[in-house]
Predict the structure of C4-dicarboxylate ABC transporter substrate-binding protein.
Amino acid sequence: MKALISFLSKFSVAMVMAMPAVAQQLSYTNYLPPTHATNRYALEPLFETVKKETNGSLTFQLHAGGSMVGGKGTISAIRDSLVDGGFVVSLYHQNEIPLNTVISDMAFFAKDPLVAMGAVNETVLLDCKECLDEYRKYKIVYMGAYATTPYMLMCKKPAQGLADIKGLKMRAAGTVYGRWATRMGGVPVNIPNSEAYEALERGQLDCLIGSMSWLKTLSLWDMTKNVVDLPMGAFLGGAFISFNEDSWNSVKKEDRDVFVKHLPAAMARLAVGYAQDDMDVAKEAKSKGVQILEPKPELTQLLDAYRQDEVKNTIEAAKSRGAKNPEKVVEALLKNLEKWQTIVDKIGHDEAKYEQALRDEIYSKVTF
C-alpha cells in the first residue's frame, strides 16, 4: 500500500509539472479606432510581442474604437475592473486627476512628439509622486503617456483669418483648447476626436483642432478640405498605458517583466510613427482635395500672444479644480521639455536611439 501511495504521489507531482502554465488574458480598451497610430504602432505590436515572448502565458484582448468603453468612461471602467487596462485621457477627467491635467493643459509648449513624450513620462514617473497618487485613487498603475504631433486647424471651409473663424463650431478638447477656440472667435465643442467625423457630417462641427494624420486615420479628409498651416500645440499627458492594480499584480512577475522590457520600444515606435504619419498624410492630402493654407498674420500674432499667458492660465485652472501646488508640476515639465529637446536634437527621430533614451532616462529608474 505504501508503495502504491508513493507511486501515486510521484505520478501526481510529475503530472502537475508537465501541465502547461495557465494562460492569462487581460482586456485593454482604447477609444481610438483600429487605424489610429496608438493601435498600429504601439498596442498591437506590443501585445503580440509579449504573447510570443511569454509563449502565450500572457495575452491581451484589445478593444479599439470604443467597442467596449468610451473615452470618458475608461477611468471608472478600470477602477471597477470592467476592463483590465486602457487609455485614460486626462482632458476628460480634469477634476478627478487635476495635477495630471496640468500637464495636458501645457499643450501649447509641445512642439515635437518625441520631446513631449519623454518630458511627460519623466515628469510623472520620476518627478511627481502626487501625479501617480491621483491614478492610485482609481486603482490605476500608470506606465506611460504619449504626445501627438502639432495640432492644426482643419475646417470644411477656408478659415485663415479671424473673420473667417468667427462663430465656427470647432472640436476643441479640454479647457486649454476651449480657451483657444474662444480666443479665436470660435465656439468650442468638447467631444472625443473619434466622434468628429459624424459631428462634421451632421453639421455639429465646422472645424476641429487636431493632428494632420487624423485626416487619414479618422477619415476626416472626406469632410475637412482646408488645413491652416499653423502649429497650435498638441495633446500630451493622460495615461496611455495603464492597468487596474489588481489585474497587473495578478500577472506573474516573469510576464510583467517581459511587458515592461518591451514598453520603451512600443513608446518609441509610436512617437516616431506618429510623426511619420503626419509627413505621409501631408503628401497625400492634395490628392484628396485638401488645401494646406497659410494663416493670416492676425491669427499668427494672436497665437503668439496667447502662448505668453499659458503658464498663468494653466496654474489658475488647476487651482480652480482643487489641485495642490500645480506650480511644481509646471516647473518640472518645463525643465524636462528643455532636457528632452537637447536629447532629441542630438539623436533626431532615430527610433532605436530614442528607445534607448527612454530606457536610460526613465524606465530603468522605475518599478511597476
